[in-house]
Amino acid sequence: MQGRSRGLLPLVGSLVPGGSAAAVRTAAPVGLPGPFRVPVSLPPSRRSTGRRWETLCWAACAVFALLLCLRTTIAPHQVWGACATAGYGLGALVARLSARPWGLASAAVAAVGSVLVPLVFLVADGARQLEVTVVERSGGLLLDSGTPYVPDPARLRDYNPYLPGMALFGLPRAVLGDVPLADARLWFGLVSLGAMGLAAALGRGAQPSRHRTARPLLRLAATPAVALPLAVGGVDLPVIALMCLALALAGRGGPVAAGLALGAAASLKWTAWPLLPVGLALLAVTAGGRAAVRAGVTAVTLAVLAVLPVALADPRAFTEHVLLFPLGEGGTGSPATSPLPGHLLATYVPGGFALAVAALALSAVAVAGSLVTRPPRTTVAAADRLALGLGIAMCLIPATRFGYVVYPLVLLGWFRLGPAGGVPWAGSPRRTATTCSP
Q1: Helices 210-222 and 184-204, interaxial angle, to 10°?
Q2: Spans of all domains in the chain
Q3: Taking the model in full, what pTM does it have?
């Protein structure tokens, strides 16, 4: 029966418009025994659904940008909102007219409108958020005095809550002077997108495709939570990008490279330090305990070399800027006053600061314990664990702000969509096959 059925396939295939024996064989007709490989192809209805969802996503981003433009009193945010509204609107139009959903064209249009156009305008105008000025000043101070911290900070703009590695982004301003190329935002964006692109390439493995890296990278850059800081500030983005790169390297079992990425992130900002135990736990699973130890030694050595000389140069300034100010205990109150649980406890409850710090310590112990009892075995699992820990910490720390949500958002989304370059309702049919039986 099986041989007779196979003999009929060429005849049946010739009766189907555009058909062939191979097409009929892969269609797995009822009654034919044995498994058949069926190519997964998206029907037109699924493509239409994908276009509709993509259009709605960019339209929602346009609404957000417009509302921000109309309601904010911060001038750089108004500029970003106006430019991004047009960019997202055009992206929605391109998505609606495209033959394939979630393509490169709509993401590129949205990214140009929400990142490139406002960034060029703001750099030319000299408008930026305060943290950009702080970082650029720290580069000059590092060259002049060996420490990026003002000795006796008196005003909010005098404080620099970042670790010494962040001052490297201020060196172009110190060396090149007052030229557009020296703007720290350009270097924030270059390092951020470069590290994220490398993380995507590592996650993709041995499948060379520029589009599979470009599409998710453009979508990430065009996301409002990323596009806004890329244009107006961007100080957190290189930290997040290096965290993603470190996890990607740890997932591939490269101890030295992963250790360097871990140490580089840890030398920029305190928010990267929870990455160390998570990345090392992942590396212990993928490459063994010795590899994790090598990565840990590499990371700690790099971080110590970046931080310790500066801390010893002026211990009092280092403590005031980097330890007390981020906790809201510096001489000037921290601007990070979003009404999250830690800040509310510290502000309105007697002894609330101690309670918030204790809750923060307990949550850190709980997450660390989970790394021992149930270590993450994949990069996605490690990113999820890190996002959970950072999310809890950002809710409980006494001085916090809603902008920190970009950390868990990128960690949760990037390793699902970035490395594979895939999104729901992808337009191009995959050549992978599934197995079915009659």
Answers
A1: 140
A2: 2-41, 128-415
A3: 0.82
Q: Which of 267, 344, 259, 347 is nearest to 306 (CA)?
A: 267
- In angstroms, the CA 131 to CA 129 distance is 6
pLDDT, tens digit, 9 for 90 and up, residues 159-190: 999 999 999 999 999 999 999 999 999 999 99
Nearest of 146, 142, 193 to residue 166 by alpha carbon: 142
Q: At what angle do helices 275-287 and 379-396 cross, to 10 degrees?
A: 160
Residue 263 has which token pair?
């140490």
**Alpha helices by DSSP H, 98-182:** 104-111, 117-125, 130-145, 171-176
Asked whether the CA dihedral 367, 405, 188, 215 is positive or negative, the reply is positive
Beta bridge partners of 433: 39
End-to-end CA distance of the chain: 15
- Exposed / middle / buried, residue 392 (Cβ in 10 Å: 0-12, 13-18, 19+): buried
CA nearest neighbour of 417 among 407, 429, 425: 425
Could you give the 3-state DSSP secondary structure of residue 351? coil
Q: Residue 178 is inside which H or E element, if any?
A: none
Alpha-carbon distance of 236 to 135, in angstroms, equals 12
User: Average pLDDT for residues 401-413, to the nearest whole number?
Assistant: 89
Contact status, residue 124 vs residue 80, Cβ threshold 8 Å: no
Range from 49-63, 174-188, 211-225 carrying the lowest mean pLDDT: 211-225
